[in-house]
Amino acid sequence: MKRDMKTWLEELKAAPVKKAMPVLSFPAIQLMGVSVKELISDSDLQAKGMALVAQRVDSAASVSLMDLSVEAECFGAQIRVSDEEVPTVVGQVVSTEEEAEALAIPEVGACRTGLYIDAIKKAAGLITDRPVFAGVIGPFSLAARLLDVTEVMIDCYEEPDMVHIVLDKVTQFLCAYCQAYKEAGANGVVLAEPVAGLLSPALAEEFSGPYVKRIVDAVQDDSFLVIYHNCGGSTIQQIDSILATGSAAYHFGNAIDMAEMMTHIPAGTVAMGNVDPAGEFRNGTPESIRAATLAVMDACCKYPNFIISSGCDIPPLSRWENIDAFFAAVREYYSR
C-alpha cells in the first residue's frame, strides 16, 4: 500500500506514545512450525510469517527478513543454510583487482532476490495497517562478503582501488534492487551496513558513506524511506558520515550506548535502538528483557526523536515470551 512515508515518520516522532519498531521477522518460524531453510525458500511463507507477526505485535512497521546472504549469493558467493540460524556467507568471490574488474553485476531477480521481492509484494497485500519495509544489505557489507570480511579490512589500506571497483558494482545492483522493492509495494528498506561499523571514521567516510548516499539519492522520496542500520561498535565515532548519507532514519545496535548516540542525532531525525537481540531476545528471560527495555527507554525517551527497537535482527529461535515481554515493557513505560 502506497503511503506518505515522510508524514508517517513525522507522526511517529510527534506521537506522545510511540510504537516500538524491532527488526522482527525470523521468529515467525515458530508461529508457523517451519525451519529457517524453508522460510528463506518460499515467498508465501515469508509473507504469511510477516502477517502473523503483524497480527501478534503492535509495531510501528513490519520489517522483512534481514537475510544478508541473499545479495552476496547473487554475485556468486557460497552460503551456508541451516534449519535454525540465519544463512551465512562462506568463502571469497573476489581476491584481485582483475577479478573485481571481471565481476558481473547480476540482474535483479537472480537467485533468491526474485523470491524475496515477491514475498514483499504479497506481504504488502496482507499487511495494510502499517508500513512494510524490506531488508537489504548495505554496500560495504556486501562488498566485504565478496572480498572476505577479514581481508577487506586489509584491502581498504593495501588495495583501495579494488575495493572501490567492487563497491561501485554492488551499489549499482543495490540501487536496482531497492527500486524493485519499491515497485513491489514496499514502503521503504532497512539498509543493513554492519561491517562498516568495524571501520575507522576515515575509512567509513571513504568506503561506506558515499555509496549508501548513492542508494538513498536513487530511491528515497515521499513514499519510500531508507532506514540506515549499523550495529557496529564504532558508529558514534562515525556519526558524521552516517548522517551525511541522508537516510530518513537511523537504527543502531547494542554495541553502543544509545543515550550517548542520541546526543549526536539532530532533533528532527529519528533514531532507533537498541535492546540486545542475542543477550535478551534470544537468551534472556521475560524479566531481564523487561528490565533491559525499560533501561533503554528511561535513558533515551526524553528525546522525542527516539524509537525503541531491538539492537539488530531478532534471532529465529528467540522465545516469543521474551518478544511479548519487550512489547509489554514498552506499554508499561508509556502507561506511567
End-to-end span in angstroms?
34 Å
Q: Which parts are unreliable, with pLDDT below 50 for 5 consecutive residues or more? A: none
The class by helix and strand makeup works out as alpha/beta
Q: List how many beta strands DSSP finds.
A: 9
The number of helical segments is 17
Key features?
single chain, 336 residues, alpha/beta, seven-stranded parallel sheet, two-stranded antiparallel sheet
What does the model show?
This protein is an alpha/beta fold and 336 residues long. 50% of the residues lie in helices and 12% in strands. The protein is built from 17 helices and nine strands. The chain has helices at 5-14, 28-32, 36-39, 43-56, 70-74, 97-102, 113-126, 139-147, 149-158, 160-184, 201-207, 209-219, 239-243, 258-262, 277-282, 286-300, 320-335, and strands spanning 62-63, 78-80, 88-90, 132-137, 188-192, 225-230, 249-252, 270-275, 306-310. It has a seven-stranded parallel β-sheet with strand order 1-4-5-6-7-8-9, with helices on both faces. A two-stranded antiparallel ribbon has the order 2-3. Helix 13 links the parallel strand 6 (225-230) and strand 7. The chain is globular. The two termini are 34 Å apart. The model has no long low-confidence stretch (mean pLDDT 97).
